[in-house]
Amino acid sequence: MLKHLPAACALLPRCLLTSSPRTFSRSSRLLGRMEAAVVRCLPGEPKLTISFCLEDSQKHMLRDQNEALGKVLTRISNTIAKNQAKAKKSKKKLDQQPSEAAETAVVKLFFKGDEVPDTLPNCEAWQDGAVLQVGEVQYNVQRNAPTFTTAELPVSLMAGFPVCPKLQVEFGNLQDCEYMWFKENSTNTSPKDSPAPEGGWTQVGCERVLVPSNQDIGCRLKLRCTPKDGSRTGQAKELVSVATVEAGPGVCTFDNRHAYTLRAAAWPALRVVSYNILADVYAQTDLSKTVLYPYCAPYALQLDYRQNLVKKELAGYNADIICLQEVDKGVFVDSLTPALDAFGLDGVFRLKEKQHEGLATFYCRSKFRLLSRHDIMLSEALTSDPLHSELLEKLSANSGLKDRILQRSTALQVSVLQDLGNPERKVCVANTHLYWHPKGGNVRLVQMGVALQHLSQVIADVAPGAPLVFCGDLNSSPGSGVVQLLSEAAVPPQHADWSSSGPEESCCMPLSSTFPPLQSACGQPAYTNYVGGFHGCLDYIFIQPQSMQVEQVIPLPSHQEVTTHKALPSVAHPSDHIALVCDLLWN
Question: Does residue 131 contact residue 112 with C-beta atoms inside 8 Å?
Protein backbone atom coordinates (compact mmCIF):
# COMPACT_ATOMS: atom_id res chain seq x y z
CA MET A 1 0.00 0.00 0.00
CA LEU A 2 2.91 2.36 0.77
CA LYS A 3 3.97 2.75 -2.87
CA HIS A 4 0.55 4.15 -3.84
CA LEU A 5 0.78 6.97 -1.26
CA PRO A 6 2.09 10.46 -2.09
CA ALA A 7 5.86 10.76 -1.75
CA ALA A 8 5.55 13.10 1.26
CA CYS A 9 3.54 10.46 3.15
CA ALA A 10 6.29 7.88 2.72
CA LEU A 11 8.32 9.82 5.29
CA LEU A 12 5.59 9.66 7.95
CA PRO A 13 5.86 7.30 10.94
CA ARG A 14 4.18 3.98 10.11
CA CYS A 15 1.70 4.30 12.99
CA LEU A 16 0.29 7.41 11.30
CA LEU A 17 -0.10 5.53 8.03
CA THR A 18 -2.28 2.92 9.77
CA SER A 19 -4.36 5.41 11.77
CA SER A 20 -8.02 6.07 11.14
CA PRO A 21 -8.84 8.52 8.29
CA ARG A 22 -9.79 11.19 10.85
CA THR A 23 -6.53 10.76 12.77
CA PHE A 24 -4.42 10.64 9.61
CA SER A 25 -5.98 13.80 8.27
CA ARG A 26 -5.41 15.72 11.50
CA SER A 27 -1.86 14.39 11.85
CA SER A 28 -1.02 15.42 8.31
CA ARG A 29 -2.17 18.95 9.01
CA LEU A 30 -0.09 19.02 12.16
CA LEU A 31 2.97 17.76 10.31
CA GLY A 32 2.64 20.67 7.94
CA ARG A 33 3.37 23.00 10.85
CA MET A 34 5.41 20.62 12.95
CA GLU A 35 6.97 22.20 16.04
CA ALA A 36 10.53 21.57 17.08
CA ALA A 37 11.92 19.42 19.85
CA VAL A 38 15.43 20.75 20.41
CA VAL A 39 17.96 18.27 21.76
CA ARG A 40 21.38 19.27 23.06
CA CYS A 41 23.72 16.30 23.34
CA LEU A 42 27.49 16.61 23.43
CA PRO A 43 30.08 13.82 23.74
CA GLY A 44 31.69 13.74 27.15
CA GLU A 45 28.76 15.37 28.95
CA PRO A 46 26.70 13.06 31.22
CA LYS A 47 23.37 14.77 30.49
CA LEU A 48 21.37 15.83 27.46
CA THR A 49 18.53 18.32 27.31
CA ILE A 50 15.22 18.02 25.45
CA SER A 51 13.16 21.19 24.96
CA PHE A 52 9.71 21.40 23.37
CA CYS A 53 6.32 23.05 23.84
CA LEU A 54 3.69 20.77 25.37
CA GLU A 55 0.10 21.97 25.89
CA ASP A 56 1.16 25.65 25.68
CA SER A 57 3.93 25.12 28.22
CA GLN A 58 7.63 25.02 27.40
CA LYS A 59 9.23 21.84 28.74
CA HIS A 60 12.93 21.45 29.46
CA MET A 61 14.03 17.92 30.34
CA LEU A 62 17.49 17.08 31.66
CA ARG A 63 18.20 13.36 31.27
CA ASP A 64 21.16 10.99 31.44
CA GLN A 65 22.68 10.28 28.05
CA ASN A 66 22.88 6.55 28.85
CA GLU A 67 19.31 6.30 30.15
CA ALA A 68 16.91 4.15 28.12
CA LEU A 69 14.65 6.10 25.77
CA GLY A 70 11.56 4.42 27.22
CA LYS A 71 11.98 6.20 30.55
CA VAL A 72 11.88 9.62 28.88
CA LEU A 73 8.81 8.75 26.82
CA THR A 74 7.04 7.44 29.95
CA ARG A 75 7.90 10.65 31.79
CA ILE A 76 6.31 12.71 29.01
CA SER A 77 3.20 10.51 29.06
CA ASN A 78 2.92 10.80 32.85
CA THR A 79 3.21 14.57 32.62
CA ILE A 80 0.26 14.68 30.24
CA ALA A 81 -1.76 12.42 32.54
CA LYS A 82 -1.06 14.68 35.53
CA ASN A 83 -2.14 17.74 33.56
CA GLN A 84 -5.38 16.00 32.58
CA ALA A 85 -6.04 15.04 36.21
CA LYS A 86 -5.53 18.67 37.29
CA ALA A 87 -7.95 19.80 34.60
CA LYS A 88 -10.61 17.39 35.88
CA LYS A 89 -10.26 18.66 39.45
CA SER A 90 -10.59 22.22 38.20
CA LYS A 91 -13.83 21.34 36.39
CA LYS A 92 -15.27 19.73 39.51
CA LYS A 93 -14.55 22.85 41.55
CA LEU A 94 -16.49 24.88 38.97
CA ASP A 95 -19.41 22.44 39.31
CA GLN A 96 -19.04 21.41 35.72
CA GLN A 97 -19.74 17.96 34.40
CA PRO A 98 -16.34 16.23 34.07
CA SER A 99 -15.48 14.95 30.64
CA GLU A 100 -14.90 11.32 29.91
CA ALA A 101 -11.57 9.92 30.98
CA ALA A 102 -9.05 10.65 28.30
CA GLU A 103 -6.99 7.84 26.89
CA THR A 104 -3.35 7.67 27.86
CA ALA A 105 -1.39 9.67 25.30
CA VAL A 106 0.79 7.66 22.96
CA VAL A 107 4.35 8.95 23.17
CA LYS A 108 6.80 7.47 20.69
CA LEU A 109 9.93 8.41 18.79
CA PHE A 110 10.43 7.60 15.11
CA PHE A 111 13.44 7.84 12.86
CA LYS A 112 13.18 7.43 9.09
CA GLY A 113 9.68 6.01 9.53
CA ASP A 114 10.70 3.34 12.04
CA GLU A 115 9.85 3.39 15.71
CA VAL A 116 12.97 3.81 17.84
CA PRO A 117 13.32 0.97 20.40
CA ASP A 118 12.61 1.98 24.01
CA THR A 119 15.82 0.26 25.12
CA LEU A 120 18.11 2.46 23.03
CA PRO A 121 20.13 4.97 25.14
CA ASN A 122 19.13 8.61 24.80
CA CYS A 123 22.43 9.63 23.18
CA GLU A 124 21.70 7.28 20.27
CA ALA A 125 17.92 7.59 20.15
CA TRP A 126 17.48 11.33 19.70
CA GLN A 127 18.83 11.77 16.19
CA ASP A 128 18.56 14.92 14.08
CA GLY A 129 15.47 14.60 11.88
CA ALA A 130 13.66 12.12 14.12
CA VAL A 131 9.94 12.65 14.86
CA LEU A 132 8.56 12.71 18.40
CA GLN A 133 4.88 11.77 18.52
CA VAL A 134 2.95 12.97 21.58
CA GLY A 135 -0.66 11.92 21.12
CA GLU A 136 -1.64 13.41 17.80
CA VAL A 137 1.07 16.06 17.80
CA GLN A 138 4.43 15.56 16.13
CA TYR A 139 7.72 17.33 16.79
CA ASN A 140 10.69 17.54 14.47
CA VAL A 141 13.77 16.61 16.49
CA GLN A 142 16.64 19.07 16.00
CA ARG A 143 19.79 17.67 17.56
CA ASN A 144 22.44 20.28 18.39
CA ALA A 145 20.59 22.82 16.29
CA PRO A 146 21.97 26.37 16.06
CA THR A 147 20.80 28.07 19.26
CA PHE A 148 21.23 31.51 20.75
CA THR A 149 22.65 31.13 24.25
CA THR A 150 22.74 34.92 24.74
CA ALA A 151 20.49 37.43 23.01
CA GLU A 152 20.14 40.97 24.37
CA LEU A 153 19.56 44.46 23.05
CA PRO A 154 21.42 47.45 24.51
CA VAL A 155 19.49 49.60 26.95
CA SER A 156 20.29 52.95 25.35
CA LEU A 157 19.27 53.57 21.73
CA MET A 158 20.09 56.76 19.82
CA ALA A 159 19.23 57.89 16.30
CA GLY A 160 22.27 57.83 14.06
CA PHE A 161 24.23 55.45 16.32
CA PRO A 162 24.65 51.70 15.70
CA VAL A 163 22.50 49.29 17.71
CA CYS A 164 24.60 46.17 18.20
CA PRO A 165 22.82 43.24 19.88
CA LYS A 166 24.77 41.04 22.25
CA LEU A 167 24.53 37.59 20.68
CA GLN A 168 26.20 34.27 21.35
CA VAL A 169 25.28 31.20 19.33
CA GLU A 170 25.98 27.52 19.96
CA PHE A 171 26.27 25.12 17.00
CA GLY A 172 26.00 28.10 14.68
CA ASN A 173 27.75 31.06 13.13
CA LEU A 174 26.73 34.65 13.79
CA GLN A 175 27.75 35.54 10.24
CA ASP A 176 25.20 33.03 8.89
CA CYS A 177 22.31 34.10 11.10
CA GLU A 178 19.33 36.03 9.77
CA TYR A 179 18.23 39.34 11.28
CA MET A 180 15.03 41.33 10.86
CA TRP A 181 14.57 44.67 12.62
CA PHE A 182 11.23 46.33 13.29
CA LYS A 183 10.16 49.59 14.85
CA GLU A 184 6.99 49.96 16.83
CA ASN A 185 4.31 51.87 14.95
CA SER A 186 3.45 55.10 16.75
CA THR A 187 0.04 55.13 15.01
CA ASN A 188 -2.14 52.58 13.27
CA THR A 189 -0.80 53.69 9.90
CA SER A 190 2.67 53.17 8.55
CA PRO A 191 4.59 55.26 6.02
CA LYS A 192 3.69 54.46 2.42
CA ASP A 193 7.29 53.72 1.47
CA SER A 194 7.85 51.30 4.39
CA PRO A 195 7.30 47.53 4.30
CA ALA A 196 3.86 46.43 5.43
CA PRO A 197 3.49 46.55 9.23
CA GLU A 198 3.41 43.30 11.15
CA GLY A 199 1.05 43.46 14.10
CA GLY A 200 1.95 47.01 15.06
CA TRP A 201 5.57 46.78 13.88
CA THR A 202 7.19 47.96 10.64
CA GLN A 203 10.34 46.37 9.26
CA VAL A 204 13.27 48.79 9.17
CA GLY A 205 16.34 46.61 8.60
CA CYS A 206 17.73 43.18 7.81
CA GLU A 207 21.37 43.39 8.91
CA ARG A 208 23.00 42.39 12.18
CA VAL A 209 23.52 46.05 13.14
CA LEU A 210 20.81 48.69 12.82
CA VAL A 211 21.41 52.43 12.73
CA PRO A 212 18.08 54.02 13.72
CA SER A 213 17.02 57.13 11.83
CA ASN A 214 15.40 60.29 13.14
CA GLN A 215 12.08 58.82 12.01
CA ASP A 216 12.53 56.09 14.63
CA ILE A 217 12.78 58.51 17.57
CA GLY A 218 10.19 57.67 20.22
CA CYS A 219 9.73 54.11 18.95
CA ARG A 220 10.82 50.84 20.49
CA LEU A 221 12.79 48.39 18.38
CA LYS A 222 12.32 44.67 17.88
CA LEU A 223 14.85 42.20 16.52
CA ARG A 224 13.88 38.78 15.21
CA CYS A 225 17.07 36.77 14.87
CA THR A 226 17.28 33.25 13.49
CA PRO A 227 20.36 31.18 14.40
CA LYS A 228 21.96 29.37 11.48
CA ASP A 229 24.96 27.32 10.53
CA GLY A 230 25.13 27.20 6.78
CA SER A 231 21.78 25.73 5.73
CA ARG A 232 20.90 24.48 9.23
CA THR A 233 18.41 26.67 11.05
CA GLY A 234 17.42 26.85 14.70
CA GLN A 235 14.56 28.47 16.54
CA ALA A 236 14.23 32.22 16.10
CA LYS A 237 14.27 34.63 19.02
CA GLU A 238 12.51 37.96 19.32
CA LEU A 239 13.99 40.79 21.36
CA VAL A 240 12.13 43.99 22.16
CA SER A 241 13.99 47.03 23.43
CA VAL A 242 13.21 48.28 26.91
CA ALA A 243 13.59 51.94 25.93
CA THR A 244 12.62 53.92 22.86
CA VAL A 245 15.02 55.49 20.38
CA GLU A 246 16.24 58.88 21.57
CA ALA A 247 17.66 61.80 19.61
CA GLY A 248 21.44 61.82 19.14
CA PRO A 249 23.78 64.69 20.02
CA GLY A 250 24.18 65.95 16.47
CA VAL A 251 27.71 66.40 15.15
CA CYS A 252 30.41 64.59 17.14
CA THR A 253 34.14 65.32 17.25
CA PHE A 254 34.93 62.18 15.27
CA ASP A 255 32.47 62.67 12.41
CA ASN A 256 34.89 64.66 10.26
CA ARG A 257 37.66 62.14 10.97
CA HIS A 258 35.52 59.36 9.53
CA ALA A 259 35.75 61.05 6.13
CA TYR A 260 39.38 59.81 6.02
CA THR A 261 38.50 56.23 6.99
CA LEU A 262 35.47 55.44 4.84
CA ARG A 263 37.31 52.44 3.41
CA ALA A 264 39.45 49.87 5.16
CA ALA A 265 43.19 50.02 4.53
CA ALA A 266 44.34 47.77 1.69
CA TRP A 267 47.56 45.76 1.58
CA PRO A 268 50.33 46.68 2.20
CA ALA A 269 48.74 49.13 4.67
CA LEU A 270 47.09 48.47 8.01
CA ARG A 271 45.11 50.93 10.14
CA VAL A 272 45.91 51.19 13.84
CA VAL A 273 43.94 52.95 16.59
CA SER A 274 45.04 53.72 20.16
CA TYR A 275 42.41 55.17 22.49
CA ASN A 276 41.88 55.68 26.22
CA ILE A 277 38.06 55.48 26.35
CA LEU A 278 37.68 56.64 30.01
CA ALA A 279 36.60 53.86 32.34
CA ASP A 280 33.17 54.18 33.91
CA VAL A 281 34.70 53.54 37.33
CA TYR A 282 36.52 56.86 36.94
CA ALA A 283 33.83 58.84 35.10
CA GLN A 284 31.22 58.28 37.82
CA THR A 285 33.20 59.43 40.87
CA ASP A 286 32.32 62.60 42.76
CA LEU A 287 35.80 63.89 41.90
CA SER A 288 35.08 63.47 38.19
CA LYS A 289 31.67 65.12 38.35
CA THR A 290 32.65 68.09 40.53
CA VAL A 291 36.37 68.68 39.93
CA LEU A 292 37.68 66.97 36.78
CA TYR A 293 34.69 67.34 34.44
CA PRO A 294 32.23 69.79 36.03
CA TYR A 295 31.56 71.27 32.57
CA CYS A 296 30.22 67.96 31.22
CA ALA A 297 26.46 67.37 31.39
CA PRO A 298 25.78 64.53 33.87
CA TYR A 299 23.88 62.45 31.30
CA ALA A 300 26.88 62.65 28.95
CA LEU A 301 29.04 60.97 31.62
CA GLN A 302 26.66 58.03 31.87
CA LEU A 303 28.10 54.79 30.56
CA ASP A 304 25.25 53.91 28.18
CA TYR A 305 25.42 57.31 26.54
CA ARG A 306 29.20 57.28 26.16
CA GLN A 307 29.23 53.73 24.83
CA ASN A 308 26.91 54.74 21.99
CA LEU A 309 29.50 57.31 20.97
CA VAL A 310 32.48 54.99 21.45
CA LYS A 311 30.96 52.24 19.31
CA LYS A 312 30.09 54.61 16.47
CA GLU A 313 33.53 56.20 16.61
CA LEU A 314 35.44 52.91 16.55
CA ALA A 315 33.24 51.36 13.86
CA GLY A 316 33.77 54.40 11.62
CA TYR A 317 37.55 54.05 11.66
CA ASN A 318 37.44 50.68 9.82
CA ALA A 319 40.58 49.73 11.71
CA ASP A 320 42.68 46.58 11.47
CA ILE A 321 44.10 46.87 15.00
CA ILE A 322 42.53 48.74 17.93
CA CYS A 323 44.29 49.16 21.29
CA LEU A 324 42.09 50.51 24.08
CA GLN A 325 42.92 51.60 27.60
CA GLU A 326 40.64 52.08 30.63
CA VAL A 327 38.21 49.41 29.48
CA ASP A 328 35.74 48.29 32.14
CA LYS A 329 35.42 44.51 32.22
CA GLY A 330 31.66 44.74 31.74
CA VAL A 331 32.10 47.14 28.84
CA PHE A 332 34.43 44.69 27.08
CA VAL A 333 32.06 41.74 27.52
CA ASP A 334 28.65 43.37 27.10
CA SER A 335 29.29 46.30 24.77
CA LEU A 336 32.56 46.39 22.83
CA THR A 337 32.88 42.69 22.01
CA PRO A 338 29.35 42.34 20.55
CA ALA A 339 29.66 45.61 18.65
CA LEU A 340 33.12 45.15 17.18
CA ASP A 341 32.44 41.48 16.44
CA ALA A 342 29.60 42.66 14.22
CA PHE A 343 32.13 44.84 12.36
CA GLY A 344 34.57 41.96 11.84
CA LEU A 345 36.95 42.32 14.81
CA ASP A 346 37.89 39.83 17.51
CA GLY A 347 39.31 41.01 20.81
CA VAL A 348 41.28 40.05 23.91
CA PHE A 349 41.17 41.64 27.35
CA ARG A 350 43.67 42.06 30.17
CA LEU A 351 42.28 43.15 33.52
CA LYS A 352 44.53 45.13 35.85
CA GLU A 353 45.24 43.37 39.12
CA LYS A 354 42.87 44.54 41.89
CA GLN A 355 41.15 46.89 39.41
CA HIS A 356 37.85 46.93 37.53
CA GLU A 357 39.35 48.11 34.25
CA GLY A 358 42.10 47.08 31.92
CA LEU A 359 43.40 46.84 28.37
CA ALA A 360 41.70 45.55 25.22
CA THR A 361 43.18 44.76 21.83
CA PHE A 362 40.95 44.09 18.82
CA TYR A 363 42.09 42.86 15.41
CA CYS A 364 40.41 42.32 12.04
CA ARG A 365 39.74 38.59 11.80
CA SER A 366 39.69 38.59 8.00
CA LYS A 367 43.33 39.79 8.01
CA PHE A 368 44.88 38.45 11.19
CA ARG A 369 44.92 35.42 13.43
CA LEU A 370 45.89 35.65 17.09
CA LEU A 371 49.02 33.54 17.29
CA SER A 372 49.86 33.98 20.99
CA ARG A 373 49.47 36.24 24.02
CA HIS A 374 52.22 37.33 26.40
CA ASP A 375 50.58 39.69 28.90
CA ILE A 376 52.37 40.61 32.12
CA MET A 377 51.95 42.80 35.17
CA LEU A 378 55.07 44.94 35.04
CA SER A 379 55.82 45.00 38.79
CA GLU A 380 55.41 41.23 39.05
CA ALA A 381 57.65 40.59 36.04
CA LEU A 382 60.29 42.90 37.51
CA THR A 383 60.69 40.70 40.58
CA SER A 384 60.01 37.25 39.13
CA ASP A 385 61.60 37.22 35.66
CA PRO A 386 65.42 36.87 35.64
CA LEU A 387 65.36 38.97 32.48
CA HIS A 388 65.01 42.04 34.72
CA SER A 389 67.45 41.06 37.46
CA GLU A 390 69.97 43.77 36.58
CA LEU A 391 67.32 46.50 36.65
CA LEU A 392 65.93 45.15 39.92
CA GLU A 393 69.39 45.17 41.50
CA LYS A 394 69.90 48.84 40.59
CA LEU A 395 66.48 49.70 42.02
CA SER A 396 67.23 47.94 45.28
CA ALA A 397 69.56 50.81 46.18
CA ASN A 398 66.44 52.94 46.70
CA SER A 399 63.87 50.99 48.71
CA GLY A 400 61.34 53.85 48.61
CA LEU A 401 61.18 53.96 44.82
CA LYS A 402 61.30 50.18 44.57
CA ASP A 403 58.33 49.80 46.93
CA ARG A 404 56.39 52.44 45.04
CA ILE A 405 56.95 50.62 41.75
CA LEU A 406 55.98 47.24 43.19
CA GLN A 407 52.68 48.64 44.44
CA ARG A 408 51.55 49.48 40.92
CA SER A 409 49.22 47.12 39.04
CA THR A 410 50.20 48.43 35.59
CA ALA A 411 49.81 45.77 32.90
CA LEU A 412 51.35 45.23 29.48
CA GLN A 413 49.17 43.47 26.93
CA VAL A 414 51.12 41.69 24.20
CA SER A 415 49.48 40.01 21.21
CA VAL A 416 51.38 38.35 18.38
CA LEU A 417 49.26 38.43 15.23
CA GLN A 418 49.77 36.36 12.09
CA ASP A 419 48.88 37.77 8.68
CA LEU A 420 46.34 35.44 7.06
CA GLY A 421 47.50 36.51 3.60
CA ASN A 422 51.08 35.50 4.35
CA PRO A 423 51.54 33.23 7.41
CA GLU A 424 55.25 34.06 7.49
CA ARG A 425 54.40 37.69 8.24
CA LYS A 426 53.69 38.51 11.89
CA VAL A 427 53.35 41.64 13.99
CA CYS A 428 53.80 42.12 17.74
CA VAL A 429 51.15 44.48 19.13
CA ALA A 430 51.79 45.97 22.59
CA ASN A 431 49.26 47.93 24.60
CA THR A 432 49.75 49.61 27.98
CA HIS A 433 48.58 52.36 30.32
CA LEU A 434 51.46 53.60 32.46
CA TYR A 435 51.30 55.04 35.98
CA TRP A 436 49.27 58.25 36.04
CA HIS A 437 50.80 60.42 38.80
CA PRO A 438 52.33 63.74 37.59
CA LYS A 439 55.36 63.09 39.83
CA GLY A 440 55.71 59.47 38.74
CA GLY A 441 58.18 59.94 35.88
CA ASN A 442 60.76 57.67 37.57
CA VAL A 443 58.14 54.93 38.05
CA ARG A 444 57.13 55.16 34.40
CA LEU A 445 60.76 54.94 33.27
CA VAL A 446 61.23 51.67 35.09
CA GLN A 447 57.89 50.37 33.83
CA MET A 448 58.89 51.14 30.25
CA GLY A 449 62.30 49.53 30.77
CA VAL A 450 60.58 46.29 31.90
CA ALA A 451 58.11 46.48 29.02
CA LEU A 452 60.77 46.88 26.32
CA GLN A 453 62.87 44.01 27.65
CA HIS A 454 59.82 41.75 27.75
CA LEU A 455 58.78 42.70 24.22
CA SER A 456 62.27 42.08 22.88
CA GLN A 457 62.26 38.61 24.42
CA VAL A 458 58.77 37.78 23.09
CA ILE A 459 59.71 38.73 19.53
CA ALA A 460 62.96 36.76 19.72
CA ASP A 461 61.20 33.65 21.05
CA VAL A 462 57.91 33.67 19.14
CA ALA A 463 58.21 35.83 16.04
CA PRO A 464 61.82 36.65 15.11
CA GLY A 465 61.99 39.70 12.91
CA ALA A 466 58.36 40.69 13.51
CA PRO A 467 57.82 44.46 13.71
CA LEU A 468 56.62 46.03 16.94
CA VAL A 469 53.57 48.29 17.11
CA PHE A 470 53.50 49.80 20.61
CA CYS A 471 50.31 51.66 21.57
CA GLY A 472 49.14 53.22 24.77
CA ASP A 473 48.40 56.00 27.18
CA LEU A 474 51.92 56.51 28.47
CA ASN A 475 51.00 59.45 30.71
CA SER A 476 54.22 60.99 29.40
CA SER A 477 54.79 64.26 27.55
CA PRO A 478 57.09 64.47 24.51
CA GLY A 479 59.94 65.73 26.71
CA SER A 480 59.65 62.93 29.25
CA GLY A 481 62.18 60.22 29.94
CA VAL A 482 59.77 57.54 28.68
CA VAL A 483 59.41 59.16 25.27
CA GLN A 484 63.18 59.72 25.09
CA LEU A 485 63.79 56.06 25.94
CA LEU A 486 61.49 55.01 23.09
CA SER A 487 62.57 57.54 20.48
CA GLU A 488 66.30 57.70 21.27
CA ALA A 489 66.78 54.22 22.78
CA ALA A 490 68.50 55.57 25.94
CA VAL A 491 67.94 57.86 28.93
CA PRO A 492 70.93 59.38 30.78
CA PRO A 493 71.18 59.25 34.60
CA GLN A 494 70.83 63.02 34.85
CA HIS A 495 67.35 63.10 33.25
CA ALA A 496 64.97 65.07 35.44
CA ASP A 497 62.42 62.24 35.57
CA TRP A 498 64.72 60.15 37.76
CA SER A 499 64.08 62.69 40.54
CA SER A 500 60.44 63.43 39.68
CA SER A 501 59.12 62.34 43.08
CA GLY A 502 61.72 64.14 45.18
CA PRO A 503 65.29 63.49 46.37
CA GLU A 504 64.27 60.64 48.71
CA GLU A 505 63.13 58.54 45.73
CA SER A 506 65.76 59.73 43.29
CA CYS A 507 67.43 56.95 41.32
CA CYS A 508 69.87 58.33 38.81
CA MET A 509 70.95 55.54 36.49
CA PRO A 510 71.38 55.05 32.76
CA LEU A 511 68.62 53.10 31.05
CA SER A 512 68.84 51.65 27.55
CA SER A 513 66.20 50.25 25.26
CA THR A 514 66.46 46.78 23.79
CA PHE A 515 65.18 48.23 20.48
CA PRO A 516 66.72 50.71 18.07
CA PRO A 517 65.04 54.14 18.20
CA LEU A 518 61.30 53.91 17.60
CA GLN A 519 59.17 56.42 15.72
CA SER A 520 55.99 58.07 17.00
CA ALA A 521 53.68 57.32 14.09
CA CYS A 522 51.33 60.22 14.87
CA GLY A 523 54.13 62.61 15.74
CA GLN A 524 53.68 64.82 18.80
CA PRO A 525 50.25 66.47 18.71
CA ALA A 526 49.64 69.53 20.84
CA TYR A 527 47.39 67.37 22.98
CA THR A 528 45.70 63.98 23.10
CA ASN A 529 44.13 64.69 26.49
CA TYR A 530 42.10 67.85 27.04
CA VAL A 531 40.33 68.51 30.34
CA GLY A 532 39.46 71.68 32.20
CA GLY A 533 42.71 71.93 34.11
CA PHE A 534 45.18 70.26 31.77
CA HIS A 535 45.93 69.50 28.16
CA GLY A 536 48.90 67.67 26.70
CA CYS A 537 50.17 64.82 24.57
CA LEU A 538 50.02 61.57 26.57
CA ASP A 539 49.08 58.94 23.98
CA TYR A 540 51.32 57.36 21.33
CA ILE A 541 51.66 54.73 18.64
CA PHE A 542 55.34 53.79 18.31
CA ILE A 543 56.66 51.75 15.38
CA GLN A 544 59.99 50.46 14.10
CA PRO A 545 60.87 52.62 11.07
CA GLN A 546 63.05 49.81 9.70
CA SER A 547 59.94 47.62 9.38
CA MET A 548 57.06 50.03 8.86
CA GLN A 549 56.36 53.46 7.44
CA VAL A 550 53.54 55.90 8.10
CA GLU A 551 51.21 56.27 5.12
CA GLN A 552 48.76 58.71 6.69
CA VAL A 553 47.79 60.12 10.08
CA ILE A 554 44.09 60.79 10.49
CA PRO A 555 43.82 64.44 11.56
CA LEU A 556 42.79 65.04 15.14
CA PRO A 557 39.65 67.11 15.82
CA SER A 558 40.19 70.83 15.45
CA HIS A 559 40.69 72.94 18.57
CA GLN A 560 37.30 74.48 17.93
CA GLU A 561 35.66 71.04 17.87
CA VAL A 562 37.42 70.00 21.06
CA THR A 563 36.47 73.18 22.94
CA THR A 564 32.91 73.61 21.62
CA HIS A 565 31.65 72.30 24.96
CA LYS A 566 34.65 73.75 26.83
CA ALA A 567 36.68 70.52 27.19
CA LEU A 568 36.50 66.73 27.12
CA PRO A 569 34.50 64.61 27.71
CA SER A 570 31.35 66.25 26.38
CA VAL A 571 28.00 65.47 24.81
CA ALA A 572 29.89 65.16 21.50
CA HIS A 573 32.95 63.22 22.72
CA PRO A 574 32.92 60.16 25.03
CA SER A 575 36.35 60.41 26.66
CA ASP A 576 38.83 62.90 28.04
CA HIS A 577 41.36 61.49 25.53
CA ILE A 578 41.40 61.65 21.73
CA ALA A 579 41.91 58.55 19.62
CA LEU A 580 45.12 58.27 17.60
CA VAL A 581 44.52 56.77 14.16
CA CYS A 582 47.11 56.09 11.46
CA ASP A 583 47.72 53.91 8.42
CA LEU A 584 51.02 52.04 8.43
CA LEU A 585 52.83 50.44 5.52
CA TRP A 586 54.75 47.19 5.78
CA ASN A 587 58.24 47.66 4.41
Answer: no
